[in-house]
Amino acid sequence: VLNRLGIITGYSEGDFRPEGELTRGAAAKIIVSLLIGPEAAEALPTTNSPYPDVPAGNVFAGYISFCKTEKIINGYNDGTFRPSGTLTGFAFAKMLLSALGYDGKVEGFTGSGWTVRVSALGSKANLFNHLDFKGGETVNRETACQLALNTLKATMVQYTGGMNITSSDGTTMVVNATREYVSSARSTSRTSAWTEKKRTATSSAVLPTCGATRKSPLAPIPSRLTLPTPPR
Question: Residue 155: which H helix or E strand, with range?
């Protein structure tokens, strides 16, 4: 299904390498493709350098810039992103939850115990369905595909209210915010076309998932994003 939608592609040799480790750059590409569609994702400009180790022109620069702008990803304390580095299942799940609209400052995705919060919210959002999920281990490409597919079926969220507080260690959190589940997409031609393509590709797809076969009608994903205009 993800290959049909263009979210996941194989290598130039024609293979997929499911046991291969997912890189941080590839994770950003998956996130953006899920949100705005692969065609719009590929059209994102690569003229900006979002991190010192992701220079302008880097194959992942557009995806990483998009995710950084939307506060879906964070770099390391030294200011780098390390696009060729690997990431754990919890780290990828945190990115996926952020893409669905979960606010890290509200939900406690920073500081000690962030993996517990990601695990709890990921389970509630059904991100780990059909997986023997080991979040502390490096995520491979096969597991990433299932996580991405589960994200396609998840409901996006938004928040109302809340106030910022800063703890003694400098960590900023948002308290008293109300989480709401979003049930309708923004009305834009690009997201409408992408939603229809997802519906057509997946409405009757038979999905072999971790040894099981099941029907999976995917619900449309609402978009909370302001989409950039592709360069001409």
Answer: none
pTM value is 0.73
Task: Please report the sign of the dihedral spanned by the C-alpha atoms of residue 14, residue 128, residue 74, residue 86.
Answer: negative
CA–CA gap between residue 222 and residue 164 (Å, rounded):
27
10-residue mean pLDDT profile of the chain (232 residues): values are 77 83 96 91 94 96 95 93 97 95 88 94 95 96 94 84 56 56 42 50 44 33 39 42
Q: Are 81 and 50 in contact (CB under 8 A)?
A: yes
Give yes or no for a contact between 190 and 37, defined as CB atoms under 8 angstroms apart.
yes
Angle of helix 24-36 relative to helix 61-69, nearest 10 degrees, comes to 70
**Inter-residue contact 78 to 84 (CB < 8 Å):** no
Is residue 211 within 8 Å of residue 220, measured between CB atoms? no
E strand or H helix at 207: strand 206-209
Residue 87: count other Cβ atoms within 10 Å of its Cβ. 21
Phi (first) and psi of residue 201, to 5 degrees: -75, -25
Q: Report whether 221 contacts 185 (CB < 8 A).
A: yes
Torsion of CA 195, 196, 198, 204, to 10 degrees: 140
